[in-house]
Design brief:
The chain is α/β, with parallel strands linked by helices and 655 residues long. It has 5 domains: 12-91 and 187-197, Response regulator (Rossmann fold), CATH 3.40.50.2300; 95-181, 3-Layer(aba) Sandwich (Rossmann fold), CATH 3.40.50; 218-307, PAS domain (Beta-Lactamase, 2-Layer Sandwich), CATH 3.30.450; 330-510, Rossmann fold; 522-596 and 610-654, no CATH class. Helix 7 packs across helix 8, helix 21 (517-533) runs antiparallel to helix 22 (540-552) and helix 26 (635-642) crosses helix 27 (646-654). The N and C termini lie far apart (100 Å). It binds adenosine-5'-triphosphate. Adenosine-5'-triphosphate (ATP) binds next to helix 15, helix 21 and helix 23. It holds the Pfam family PAS_8. InterPro entries: AAA+_ATPase (IPR003593), AAA_lid_NorR (IPR058031), Homeodomain-like_sf (IPR009057), HTH_Fis (IPR002197), P-loop_NTPase (IPR027417), PAS (IPR000014), PAS-like_dom_sf (IPR035965), Sig_transdc_resp-reg_PrpR (IPR012704). Residues 207-243 form the PAS domain. Keywords: ATP-binding, Nucleotide-binding, Transcription, Transcription regulation.
């Protein structure tokens, strides 16, 4: 036998149906006769009592024993059904039972009566009339009525009475001949039905137990009521929410809802039969969210289920969800090989980042103008490092108030400040454990927080706001800034010790204007992406080719992000134009890339041969002059900023 077979056999034995067969009369003999046939399917106990005696005995035994189904017959069966809460199967009289009993009666006398409980058998009546048989038919409800009836029949000259046990016994007692109506087959059928009912009852009970187990463990409060608002079922969470966790559950069952949960009303769910979801109600100190759902059985409403959630729990779940979302969304998407670059400076920079990622776990400080790709590089470093499979969490230090930034970074304990979430909250350092945290705009971090950050970097431990214990964290920090951090250190706006702690590995991303060689590849890459998003990938290259001269003449103060935005705008413009944009369209779509319009005309001068070169040269010269004036005429500085030699700068300005 396999282990599964053994297990199911054990389960079957554990749930062997228990049937009590109850009769005060001769049906008991029939029960005894067939009980052995059912011994494999059920435990059958025979109780040789009837009516009130039987009820007393059954109730006494039920205190210590289990009974699934009762089998009984006639008026005794009807009495037991009325007085007991157990399922009961009545032994039924079949047509053949009647014929067999009448045959036995006829052998005694032809003055026969048949007396049945409650109703006479209609088929039998038809049969008697059809064959004009001298058989009298009677029915009774109580034992007294049966006795009365048999006396009357005796007075009418009846010699044999066919009927259930009570009737047959009374007939014998009153000097008539009693013939018992029930057969072995009718009792067998009743036992089979009883076994089946016990089986269904068991299946339902285990389903109920499963549901009950679910209810007991739900954190939402649940209460089921019937149409009269009586409590059918309730779970511990509901007791907790209602403020009476000590009340034993059984005390609630069957009581009116308003008595046990005065604060939770059924509302109109019972009268209107419509669900009422998400109703926010104040119950004492708590704000509860209550759902009321009607329950229907076969199309008829039989009650309602009320589920109750504490609004504090909802908020907690929502914030956890938000944090989870944040963590989930902030994984690093980019890899270093996706950084588009052909310039030697950028290629060297990418190789340096590869080394920083693979060979070191030290803090990295990325500096560069806005939009140069600092976050892209940070993600690339994370993805090339041993931390790639762990979280990458980014935060812009300039986007929060001091207190919010503090709690976001370091987390807080329960009750740390007004509005602090119950149970506290982990900060990004904790959430990024084993991974990387990207602190963008580090120059914007308030001095107080710089001190806390320095401590985290030194101790590799984080202390939540309002907390007493330090939590060890293993996080790599990559910081980024577009500001001159050293200048800020000198101006005492940035902690020197923190600067040196962050600046272990340096990455300086040059602005786009200092690496014009990258422009074409970047344009192709970003246009491809933008046009793909717009569903126009085939046109990207042609358009890049047509706009590149214009692009080359622009200084891209917004760097790669500006280029990305231009690509996006152009892609959308192409959809509207249904084709490649002409010079006018370009001017309209990308006005910042064009020089000032000719005063008064509202349009650019008419195109002439060689215009593009002239425009490019003019724009370049304007840009060189503006950088030169930014450097207060210092050519060496301007050349450095522009990424060209002093001689080239001089030559270009002369041209
Ligand atoms: N070399 C590159 N190859 C491909 N895409 C790039 C490159 N450099 C930047 N980008 C893209 O340009 C956009 C701006 O980059 P990113 O956000 O990394 O810049 P940033 O320096 O962090 O900007 P900010 O200082 O404003 O936060 C991003 O969409 C990024 O994917």
């Amino acid at each position: 036998m396999s282990p599964e077979d053994t297990a199911s056999r054990h389960a079957a034995i554990a749930h062997h149906p228990v049937i009590w067969a109850v009769s005060a009369y001769r049906l008991t003999d029939i029960f005894r006769g067939i009980a052995p046939e059912f011994s494999a399917q059920a435990d059958i106990h025979i109780i040789n009592k009837g009516f009130a005696d039987a009820v007393d005995e059954i109730q006494a035994r039920l205190r210590h024993e289990r009974c699934d189904v009762i089998v009984a017959a006639g008026s005794n069966g009807a009495y037991l059904r009325e007085h007991l809460a157990l399922p009961l199967v009545l032994v039924k009289v079949g047509g053949f039972d009647i014929l067999a009993a009448l045959t036995r009666a006829r052998q005694v006398s032809d003055r026969i009566a048949i007396v049945t409980h409650k109703t006479t058998a209609p088929e039998l009546g038809k049969f008697i009339r059809l064959f004009d048989l001298p058989i009298k038919e009677r029915s009774y409800e109580t034992a007294d009525q049966a006795r009365h009836c048999i006396r009357a029949l005796a007075a009418q000259g009846i010699a044999v009475v066919v009927g259930p046990g009570l009737v047959a016994n009374l007939a014998d007692e009153l000097g008539l001949h009693g013939v018992f109506l029930y057969s072995l087959d009718s009792a067998r059928e009743a036992f089979s039905d009883a076994v089946e009912i016990a089986r269904i009852k068991h299946v339902e009970a285990s389903r109920h137990a499963q549901l009950d187990a679910v209810l007991q463990h739900l954190s939402d409060g649940v209460v089921a009521i019937d149409m009269t608002q009586k409590v059918l079922s309730v779970n511990p969470a509901m007791l907790r929410l209602a403020g009476s966790p000590e009340t034993p559950m059984a005390q609630w069952l069957g009581k009116p809802l308003r008595e046990v949960l005065p604060a939770v009303r059924a509302g109109s769910v019972l009268t209107r039969g419509w669900p009422d979801l998400g109703s926010v109600e104040q119950v004492g100190q708590r704000t509860l969210v209550i759902n009321r759902v009607p329950v229907f059985e076969q199309g008829v409403q039989t009650g309602a289920v009320l589920t109750v959630i504490d609004s504090g729990d909802v908020e907690q779940v929502t914030s956890r969800l938000r944090l989870h979302q944040q963590v989930k969304n902030r994984h690093a998407r980019y890899h270093l090989h996706q950084v588009a670059a052909v310039s030697t400076r950028m290629k060297q920079l990418i190789a340096l980042c590869e080394t920083y990622a693979r060979r070191s776990d030290a803090t990295v400080l990325i500096s560069g103008e806005s939009g140069t790709g600092k976050e892209l590089i940070a993600q690339g470093i994370h993805n090339a490092s041993r931390r790639a499979a762990e979280p990458f969490l980014a935060i812009n230090c300039g986007a929060f108030t001091e207190s919010l930034l503090e709690s976001e970074l370091f987390g807080y304990e329960d009750g740390a400040f007004t509005g602090a979430r119950r149970g506290g909250k982990a900060g990004l350092f904790e959430s990024a454990h084993l991974g990387t945290i990207f602190l963008d705009e580090i120059g914007e971090m308030p001095l107080v927080l710089q001190t806390r950050l320095l401590r985290v970097l030194q101790e590799k431990e984080v202390m939540r706001v309002g907390g007493r214990e330090s939590i060890p964290v293993d996080v790599r920090v990559i910081a980024a800034t577009h500001r001159d951090l050293l200048g800020m250190v000198e101006a005492q706006q940035f902690r020197q010790d923190l600067f040196y702690r962050l600046n272990i590995l340096q990455v300086v991303i040059p602005p786009l204007r200092q690496r014009p060689e990258d422009l074409a590849l970047l344009a192709v890459t970003l246009f491809d992406a933008a046009f793909k998003r717009a569903g126009l990938q085939d046109q990207a290259r042609d358009i890049v080719k047509s706009v590149l001269p214009l692009f080359m003449s622009h200084s891209w103060p917004g760097n790669v992000r500006e280029l990305e935005n231009a690509a996006e705008r152009l892609a959308i413009g192409c959809i509207a134009l249904h084709g490649i944009p002409g010079p006018d369209d370009l001017q309209r779509l990308l006005p910042e890339l064009h020089g000032p319009r000719v005063a008064g005309s509202g349009a650019r001068p008419p195109a002439a041969a060689g215009e593009l070169k002239a425009v490019t040269r003019q724009t370049e010269k304007a840009h060189l002059q503006s950088v030169l004036s930014e450097c207060t005429g210092n050519q060496a500085e301007a050349a450095k900023r522009l990424g060209i030699s002093r001689a080239t700068l001089w030559r270009k300005l002369r041209a």
